[in-house]
Amino acid sequence: MTIYLRLIWSYLKIGFFGFGGGYAMLALIENEIVTPGWITQQMFTDIVAISQMTPGPIGINSATYIGYVAPAASSPALSSPVYGIIGSLLCTLVVVLPSFILVRYAGHYISRHRESAALKGVFAGLRPVVIGLIASAALILMNGENFGSTPSDVTKSIILATVALGMTLFTKVHPILLIIAAGVIGYFIF
Questions:
Q1: How far from 163 is each of 89, 129, 139, CA to CA, in Å?
Q2: Best label site of 3, 14, 54, 118, fewest CB within 10 Å?
Q3: Chain segment 72-91, per-residue pLDDT in tens
Q4: 6: helix, coil or strand?
Q5: Are 41 and 5 in contact (CB under 8 A)?
Q6: CA angle, corner 49, sides to 46 and 167, nearest 5?
Q7: CA distance 179 to 46
Q8: Distance between CA atoms of 122 and 109, rounded to whole angstroms?
Q9: Under a CB-based contact definition with an 8 Å cutoff, are residues 64 and 50 in contact?
């Protein structure tokens, strides 16, 4: 049952230090979840992809999924779905708890001291770090699980990524259509 305490500790850290949203949290989530061996790098990449296609923030979606699979990954005795559901509930609640506390108590302080030089300095310091964390997430996702392991797959993946980026930046194509098109194209070329 120590897996639950370890999950709680990991998701408290993710919740308290996951500034900048889901993509900024990816490096922290990967470090806390993949490194102990609760999931593989391939599963992590799949979680990111699925989390982007399902409603809700990536931190919460990943917490729910990882909470479900981690007990069984840590011990075969915990492979019952009941242990997974307990893990899902714990991780989901724990990852949102810090945000709830911060918004509840810091929101009043921030609105009261909006013009404070110290507060402006804190946010000025956080912004570049968040950008760095988001850039780090992009690099984390540029791996063999996303781009393939053969030169042919890597080339196809780079072409798809470049076309999707170009379509996003220079056209008015709806992102849902891009996702559907990518799935259909991927089915045929991979």
A1: 39, 29, 18
A2: 118
A3: 988 889 989 999 999 999 99
A4: helix
A5: no
A6: 145
A7: 15
A8: 13
A9: no
Q: How far from each other are the two terminal CA atoms of the chain, in whole angstroms?
A: 41
Alpha-carbon span 155 to 148, nearest angstrom: 9
CA–CA distance, 164 with 84 (Å, rounded to integer): 36
For a pLDDT cut of 70, what percent of the chain falls above it?
99
pLDDT of residue 20: 67
Please check the confidence at residue 1 and state whether its pLDDT lies above 90: no
Kind plus residue range of the DSSP H or E element containing 16 = helix 2-17
Residue 88 contacts residue 67 (beta carbons within 8 Å) = yes
CA distances (Å), origin 91, targets 18, 38, 49, 58, 85: 14, 13, 19, 13, 10
Query: Which pair of structure tokens corresponds to residue 92?
Result: 């989901």
Q: Which pTM was predicted?
A: 0.67
Neighbouring residues of 45: CB distance < 8 A, sequence distance ≥ 6: 141, 143, 145, 146
